[in-house]
Amino acid sequence: MGYNARFKVWRGDDTDGELEDFTVEVNEGEVVLDIIHRLQATAAPDLAVRWNCKAGKCGSCSAEINGMPRLLCMTRMSTFGESDVVTVTPLRTFPVIKDLVTDVSFNYAKAREVPSFAPPADLAPGEYRMAQVDVERSQEFRKCIECFLCQDTCHVIRDHDDNKPAFAGPRFFIRLAELDMHPLDTLDRKREAQQHHGLGMCNITKCCTEVCPEHIKITDNAIIPMKERVVDTQYDPVVWLGNKIPRRASAAANRALDAGDASAAEQHARARLRDKPTDRSALRALEVALSAQGRFAEAADVTRVQLAEAGRGNSNRRAALAAHAWVMLCAVEAGQLDLENCEEEIASTLQQAQRLASTGTVLAGSHALHNLVHGRLAEAVEQGRETLHWDRPPQTRADDLLTLSEALAGLGEDGESASAMSESLTLWPDNPRLSSARSNLRETGVG
Ligand code: SF4
Ligand code: SF4
Ligand code: FES
Predict the structure, then answer these.
(1) Per-residue b or e along 69-92, where b marks 16 or more CB atoms closer than 10 Å to that residue's CB
(2) Whose Cα sits closest to atom 3 in ligand 1?
(3) How far is the CA of 159 from the centre of ligand 2 (A)?
(4) Residue with the nearest Cα to atom 3 of ligand 2?
(5) Could you say which of 2.20.28.160, 3.30.750.24, 1.10.1060.10, 3.40.50.960 is the CATH number of the domain covering 105-235?
(6) Is 170 in the pocket of ligand 1 (CB under 6 A)?
(7) 265 exposed, middle or buried (CB, 10 Å; 0-12, 13-18, 19+)?
(8) Which numbered ligand comes closest to the C-alpha of 148?
(9) Taking the complete model, does pTM exceed 0.85, yes or no?
(10) What CATH number labels 359-447?
(11) Which residue of 127, 268, 314, 433 has the smallest Cβ count within 10 Å?
(12) What is the pLDDT of residue 245?
């Protein structure tokens, strides 16, 4: 059943304008854009509005309806009462060109300021590989239709034109987060977001998330994780203090580690832990010292304590979970822990670590080793090969190659196994996993 609705529509340009009253017919199933089109066809043929798809996909018809940033084509008239007055105004954050059409070129200028995807120089197009979990994570951000409703609602620029040069806005924070989470991107996106795009000016009010027609969790999934990682690297007082004031015994342990003396490092770390059993730096030094000596099961006892002391902050917890899963897997590989007894702990630690990991690649080597110790060789090989496409530190790459070498040997791929082993040795000749890996390889007749 149709009815006549009362509308107030903003008419004007960048110099002047006012709300104009209309009474217009509304039919069942119509959206606000239908009404605007009816006005163009009847009372206001020169009414300017931008639109293209009428399906919520092109992002052109953004405006404010009763003061809320909305898509005209996705706002049903049935959401209003028949006696309501519906007010339609242009996006407030951007200059008006005419009536409901605004100049959103600010956003295109900001888009150009974000450097594009930067893969490793030695990787040719067609050789890019990434984990499914990373594809899925960034998929959410790629749903953006560039309607700029989030930009419009963000108070940092909505009420403060002077912030515009320094602030990119939520749409570009999700772009930066997407690139930051991309395993093959080589630029430091979070530092760039903080230093050049005004990430620090966002006070996570979540207004952008509330208006996003694609239901992208802009604040929770992009802005907050990026802010956390910036804080981890730049502002965390614990990290800062840890960097500035090395505690004596922990510092001695770290010096011994730097000098390659794992046994002295162990003694210094244990001395410090007698005074302060929860000293993070000493725990870390002890874990590294034990691992360097190939005593992975003992290292796992230390990482368990680290995990208990990690608190609830995402970054500490993520690091502690990853370290614990890794040393337990190494202990199983070396025959120091029985897989049957600790599989539940390994699986749950890995699962929790994966949930907090910024990208799937961070734990890919652990997943490959997990498959290897279970004898799932084909999966281990597949993951091991994939990890080689990613830009990782030399020791991590050496570990990945070692896992790959063992898995390949188990499948009878001796040539590729031997070459993976030799590359691993070049990268990290003192890898403490080597002796167990070599004995596994001997069992299979390789190495
Ligand atoms: S959460 Fe940040 S980016 Fe989003 S609207 Fe609020 S201040 Fe702006
Ligand atoms: S993030 Fe959402 S609100 Fe912002 S431009 Fe993209 S689709 Fe629009
Ligand atoms: S017309 Fe394309 S999103 Fe509304």
Answers:
(1) bbbbbbbebeebeeeeebebbbbe
(2) 170
(3) 19
(4) 212
(5) 1.10.1060.10
(6) yes
(7) buried
(8) 2
(9) no
(10) 1.25.40
(11) 127
(12) 44
